[in-house]
Amino acid sequence: MTSNYIPGLEGIIAAQTAISMVDGENGRLVYHGYVIADLAEEMSFEEVAHLLWRGRLPTRAELDALTLELAGSRNLTPAATATLEALPTDTDPMDVLRSVVSVQGVEHRLEKPTIPLAIHLAASFPTILAAFHRRQQGQPAIKPRADLGHAANYLYMLNGKESSPEIVHALNTYLVLLADHGMNASTFTARVIASTDSDLASCVVGAIGALKGPAHGGAPSAVIEQLEQMGTAQNAERWMREARTRKVKFMGFGHRVYRVYDPRAKILKAMCERMNPDFYALATKVEEVALRILHEEHPERPQSTNVEFYSAGVLQAIGLPKQYFTPTFAVSRAAGWTAHVLEQVANNRIIRPQSEYIGPEPRKPVPLAERG
Amino acid sequence: MAEFSPGLEGVVAAETAVSEVDGAGGRLIYRGGYLIEDIVPVAGYEEAAYLLWHGELPAEKELEALRQQMSAARTLNRSARGCLTALDPQTDAMDVLRTVVSAQGASKTFSKPTLDEAVALTAVFPTIVGAAHRRRQGKEIVEPRADLGHSANLLWMMSGEEPKSDQVRWLDTYLVLLADHGLNASTFTARVVASTGSDLCSCVVGAIAALKGPAHGGATFAARTMLDKIGSAENAEKYLTEAHGRHERFSGFGHRVYRTYDPRAKILREMAKTASPELYKTAARTEEVALKILHDAHPDRPNATNVDFWASVVLTGAGIPKELFTAIFATSRVSGWTAHVLESLADLRLIRPASHWTGPEPGKKPAQLAKR
Question: Do B353 and A13 touch (CB under 8 A)?
């Protein structure tokens, strides 16, 4: 019998969506019809979140209303604050986020997912992460400021002071670029959970768990670590060739969907050149060598730099600690996750695929006393 | 391009030896090739969990070792305790479970899923469910007992009283029956999260989140709620006829996979006669009438009683309040979730399906804010 099993569900259409499209052949990422390059450096995260949630860019009045609602939802519930304080300071911030978002969402149990609930949850991410970061530093949490936007307020709560417009703009661009990306594993997780009619917090908590995996969102800090091991551009090729003999994976390369340069990586690369010249010098050399080696090994495969690679340089330039790279990815993707949940719920059918049994033919069990 | 199959119906998303649902034949096969009706007479929950994890039933020495390992892992760690006490005592038991499991598994280092972690996570579920129940009632939390097995401990930590042996047997049988069931939505969620290389706790938290949905794990609660509304065998026909007239779905009937009577429902139905004789009468009459109405309305459709219907009667007999039904379901299924995650590690591949774009033609230019 031939197997119908489709590893990784590659090429299987699991949803119809109007939220984002990854055009892998042409290297385009599209949010509701807009190409990412037209949004990235022009729009605020709030405008893009509105686009993902409602399907269109906001008018001035709508943007003001959304900004106000986000700012008004930044405080944690007493239970969420207490949970945050109960976790040891050396806990992985992704585990903190998973646990505290789970508590923050408790108040809305089994309500049908709505846009206000999406706003409420998305608004809490920066507060949770910043408060935990402050605790790790032995400093008190900073109260959110309603007059600052999503990106600016996140930095303010992390550092206790306002960041320069350039830094705020860089973080905002990052948040816009990463806000959605088709049927990636964490978004798909959120949609599977939504398909059981579960609540929004459950969907988002599941998605955080999926994003944590190194094959998904868990890679950008690994990019930095690898670059640190190489140390210098001169040393890159020797290190990388040697690493390959030990089957070490190059972090930040390859993607299931893109066959050409990831359009987000292109924008982030240009930002690195401006903001993080040391990183840029080493990274461009490593990129050149990595693509060359990967091409030598598999000339038939398209090889490309993915979004994680230059994300690492941008987030480093913004001043985020490595541990907060993946959680900050989550801050951005929370908009996409919740938008997908709302879309799934609007036209739902429980996602329950099949499995193919590869175990033994039915047989009789032996009672305990006769086993041995 | 492949076609969109809503709910991924008919798509094979995994190869598995953990369990097989033979819908046409009405058979549920657990790892090792054992039919569920053959396992129930010879194995308790710990043995069934061992079977799902290892592929073979344990010998006496192995079972003893597993019991000791579980017994040592029943206590909540500091993070989990802090998190539990931070939650409002009235919090939904599934939200408590999702949050406290997340905290129990929160860690400073990242680790790949292991069997020891699977055992530890499984062992701690009764502790959390018991504590959630006690807090809800405004009572002191009861600590686990080393001399009691999994099911007995759960009842002990709920009531603080020595459970009756019949009660333990009814609950234990339920836990054996529900421990795995092919690629259901929560198990699939766990496998999607695992596919990113994430940790075991994230997989299990995601699965809890999916199980919470009324279309998945919430069905037992819904079945019991319907039986409560019906109230007596005499009222069944009137209630169901009216409900059918209002196009209400009957809770506890129908299943995506089974085309005949669910083998688990058959076992629970028999047990319900002694576990809860009064409720059994109402349920038996309800089943008779519901199946007739459904058959008359859709003679072409197989509309059999599902496991949730009879589970709701047996759990009632075991002394479980209906607010805990879904959490008890999770307490069983966690062994299956973890077995699937561990199995998937052998050939890990990112689960990243495609989506079909239904949005506007890409490339439209965004208007400036002032012009919208």
Answer: yes
